[in-house]
Design goal:
single chain; about 230 residues; three-stranded mixed β-sheet; 11 helices; about 60% helix
């Protein structure tokens, strides 16, 4: 499984002309990401915001080394692939971002919520672009689009939906939907009922036109302002 996923990461990099960061990370398959962090790095575990029970994580260990953690028990194979590529995209994003802040530790880079919220979009966007690209005429893209919207609407209705959760869910679902719309331009690029309010629509509009890290970094301050208006 580990070997196969590494080959899929390589295919992913080839398809989107990304650098394969050989030697920069270790892929770890686990039955529970949260428990892995708790057992290996309890101080970091207690620092992380709750609730914390992810299917995957781009984790910086105490030695400042990147580990891509993937839950292989609670996910089926397609979702394992999406999660692996999602976390690898985070790795590439943070490696690139770190080049602009050479004095900041890898762990501290992850404290930048503005960057984290863009990378969450980017990871969702690229991982789903890869999956959608594997399909052709058999995909019911209209049904998938509706399912993404419905999933988003259900998530933000939860009683526990605070600001952070709302932003996280939004940028994640925006990435998934924008990937679908890019693959199948016939669907509506700006669907109704996809935004909590105008501030969230402004974030969607920004993400729609900032799908690469270089373009995002150029307009970082604009995105920072939009995030802080939520």
């Amino acid at each position: 499984m580990n070997f196969d996923l590494l080959n899929i990461i390589k295919d992913f990099c080839d398809k989107f002309e990304l650098e394969y960061l050989k030697g920069e990370f270790k892929l770890i398959l686990t039955d529970n990401v949260a428990d892995y962090i708790r057992q290996k790095d309890y101080l970091y575990y207690t620092w992380l915001k709750k609730p914390f029970d992810p299917f995957g994580m781009c984790y910086v260990d105490p030695n400042e080394e990147y580990k891509l953690l993937v839950d292989t028990v609670r996910q089926n194979l397609p979702n394992i692939i999406v999660t692996t590529l999602h976390e690898y995209t985070h790795l590439g994003d943070y490696m690139r971002y770190g080049q602009t802040k050479p004095t900041v530790s890898r762990r501290n880079l992850q404290e930048d919520d503005t960057f984290r919220y863009w990378s969450e979009f980017h990871a969702s966007y690229l991982s789903h672009m890869f999956v959608f690209s594997l399909d052709d005429t058999s995909m019911d893209y209209e049904r998938i689009g509706v399912e993404i919207l419905q999933s988003y609407q259900e998530a933000i209705k939860q009683d526990t939906c605070d600001r952070e959760y709302a932003v996280y869910e939004s940028v994640h679902k925006y990435g998934e939907y924008i990937a679908l719309q890019e693959r199948y331009p016939i669907i509506n690029s700006h669907p109704i009922n996809f935004y909590i309010n105008d501030a969230f629509r402004n974030i969607y509009d920004f993400l729609f036109t900032h799908r690469t890290i270089d373009k995002f970094l150029k307009d970082y301050q604009e995105y920072d302002k939009l995030i802080n208006q939520i």
